[in-house]
């Protein structure tokens, strides 16, 4: 996002370059567009190109959408648009002459096809610090306009939520669609999958988009050989294929075909798709475009993509663009020259400019782009160089900042990245190198999320985490995956939970679906909120007890063995532990039998049959020494016995609950490490054995 907005001047026809170049190779040069108009709106070289009777694809921009009908009469309509005053035509020399004198036509340029332009890099920009601060981009989405994304890649598991394809079939240009169904446009699952259709046959030509997506939002926790994470491992991905297949030497280079290139018209259709998703309620924070061509030293106000990029910015979506790999000392490629885009150059690990990176006053940010390892189709990983690799670092960083500052606009978020970055000074300019870790507030234990408990709420035989977002008061279900990492694919199951203290999650009502039991802090009464299965919202709110202001809750489980879950709680007045018997349905709790004394100095983990004797036990931390203990239940209303140590050094943890999360028959402890904000399973071993391992199942809590 350049400030101030510069006036466009004519740019020379210049070499164009892949913004993603394989490691240890030289750049492939081609001819970029000369985007100049001095005697009318038509780019002058187009007259020369059609002088001998040929035709050309052109993007025609008008003052108003009402002018499109007149402009369209100058040729064959190839692409029409939903929002911008633009049409893509096939026209000849005579048609260009008509367009050059038509009222309302303000720009005519060739629809030229252009090429696509982790661990160490994400550490460099402070992504690990951001994750430790609990900011992972959860709740946001990043659109990847590229060569498609391998949707089933383990680094991107369950992350690709929306797919579309805009790909040109044009015999004149020798291009064919890469949409799996062969048409010029396809929507829905599979439409942008780089592991299927023609893309899967092109020997890596479609690997670029998967690599870019992994940098922006990949998550490698628990995956052997994978990078640890992308920049925003909690963000969703919108995959949009905007490339077409070419076989000609003219476009691919002598003997270099087949290759994949992207038409401007496809890019604009894709950007319109992103705008439509945003307007329909998807929280898209950034559209990443790691592609481009040309040589621009000042802002390109007449670029046909500018209108839709402007519209996205107004809607709250940043268009993040790779600067290009020509090594220009004072220029960038288009569309990085668009004033409302966020244009990104490449830096090295020692904070030097990458030799290939374009640079200069039009750059907004620098980010790592040298030797970046990320996902590629075929469920593998590879290293690539290029400003293509730098741009998704910024797209991911914007998702992280939106998670940290949900009410702040794009201008403010970009400003935070710019002002927190490390300045890199070079001839003619100084550009901040991304440092998202410095841009987010530090993680504060006990803030962000409050845990209701763990149970198989959605009915898939895996224990799920239920937690309240303290910023909004919304209760979410986070589906469990056995010992797998939580994808943070959350589902809201309740609203307005700001003023509740949670007792636990269990099937109190006996209908086969776990319920949430909680205290309303306004009146001190206890309520059961009935679960509905799947990801359905909780219903009801039946009172099951009154006068619970002075209690700390241990959990909900069938302690007495009568088939109905009970509430176990500490009376904070005397420090004793009691079991309050559930009666099923929505009936009130009964009794209040003491089952332990002297619990003033304990923090409770939960209630479950840890020892495996058929009776639920209490697991708790002794706050005096920080160790974890299991206190054995004896059934009925009998007192807890023993107090066997099952772990040491638990001073810095907040507990989610006790349940057989891993599915091995032994209850485990699920907990947040308050030092880094990540969620872990500590595996139970049965009996009174010590907990083992520490499997990370979620970050940013």
Q: Indicate the proportion of strand residues.
A: 25-35%
Please report the number of helical segments.
12
Decide which structural class fits the backbone.
alpha+beta
What is the topology, as strand order, of the major beta sheet? 12-10-13-9-16-18-20-21
Assembly state (oligomeric): single chain
Number of strands: 45
How many strands, what sense, and barrel or not for the largest sheet?
A: 8 strands, mixed
> Which term fits the overall shape?
elongated
What would you report as the Rg, rounded to the nearest angstrom? 29 Å
Question: In whole angstroms, how far apart are the ends?
Answer: 31 Å
Helix content, binned percent: 10-25%
pLDDT < 50 runs, ≥5 residues: 3-38
- What's the rounded overall pLDDT mean? 88
Q: TL;DR of this structure?
A:
The chain is of the alpha+beta class and 701 residues long. The chain contains twelve helices and 45 strands. The strands form twelve sheets. The chain has an eight-stranded mixed β-sheet, with helices on both faces. A four-stranded antiparallel β-sheet has the order 5-6-4-7. The protein has a four-stranded antiparallel β-sheet with strand order 8-15-14-11.
Task: Give the topology, please.
Elements: E1 15-17, E2 21-22, E3 29-31, H1 45-49, E4 56-62, H2 68-72, E5 76-80, E6 86-91, H3 93-101, E7 105-110, E8 113-114, H4 119-124, H5 127-132, E9 141-146, E10 160-166, E11 175-177, E12 185-187, H6 208-217, E13 236-241, E14 244-246, H7 249-252, E15 259-263, H8 264-279, E16 284-289, E17 293-296, H9 306-315, E18 318-322, E19 332-334, E20 342-347, E21 365-368, E22 372-376, E23 380-385, H10 387-404, H11 410-420, E24 422-426, E25 429-433, H12 436-439, E26 449-455, E27 464-469, E28 474-478, E29 491-494, E30 500-506, E31 515-520, E32 526-530, E33 539-545, E34 551-557, E35 566-571, E36 576-581, E37 590-596, E38 602-608, E39 617-622, E40 627-632, E41 641-647, E42 653-659, E43 668-673, E44 678-683, E45 692-698
Parallel strand pairs: 9-13, 9-16, 10-13, 16-18, 18-20, 20-21
Antiparallel strand pairs: 1-3, 2-23, 4-6, 4-7, 5-6, 8-15, 10-12, 11-14, 14-15, 17-19, 22-23, 24-25, 26-27, 27-28, 28-29, 30-31, 31-32, 32-33, 34-35, 35-36, 36-37, 38-39, 39-40, 40-41, 42-43, 43-44, 44-45
